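Final report, closing paragraph on structural work. Over the funding period we assembled a curated collection of sequence-structure pairs, and we close with a single example.
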Amino acid sequence: MEAFDTLYGKAVPLDIINVDTDQIIPKQFLKKIDRAGFGIHLFHDWRYLDDYGTKNNPEFVLNYSRYQGAEILLTRRNFGCGSSREHAPWALYDYGFRCIIASSFADIFYNNCRKNGILAVVLQDNEIQTLFEEVETNEGSLLTVDLPSQTVSTTEGKKFSFDIDYFAKNCLLKGLDDIGWTLQFEEKIQIYEKQARREKPWLFISG
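Its predicted structure, as stored:
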């Protein structure tokens, strides 16, 4: 997993509340277990005018030329609600998003983002509104998301602080998912297993 430190880039303003995982990645595309290749289907029903994803919807914000190449998704409250499918952050990451800023997230989605290298930032409603106004008004406006200092800054000099728990922050800074975090302790785990085999051999008898 790619480590997250400081991100300086464009933000797409998705001005919709209660965006659920079915809207992020519709169920008909959940046919793979590989994480790659879901980005093309991100927000499919809003992003395209046809079922095959060949005709872009010119009125959907992700299709605006000014927001191409954006790595930050700016949105509203309760983002990622609905089912617990991990394909939702897979699709967002595969599209190119490394950070999502909203006033609230569904809990499972929030945790799934961390496990997949996406920083989910929670700000107050008025702070979100300030970011929307700046991004929409000033074409080319960029945001700086600084995980070590836990701040979001604008090109106009506004700065907002966000909270994140210690474990999630360190996983993102080090680029570790849950398996990667566990593997840090591989030597200690092996020592424990060897000791357990000596002291309780009956636990390891198969058949």
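The longest helix spans residues 186-199. The first strand starts at residue 6 and ends at 9. We thank the funder for supporting this effort.
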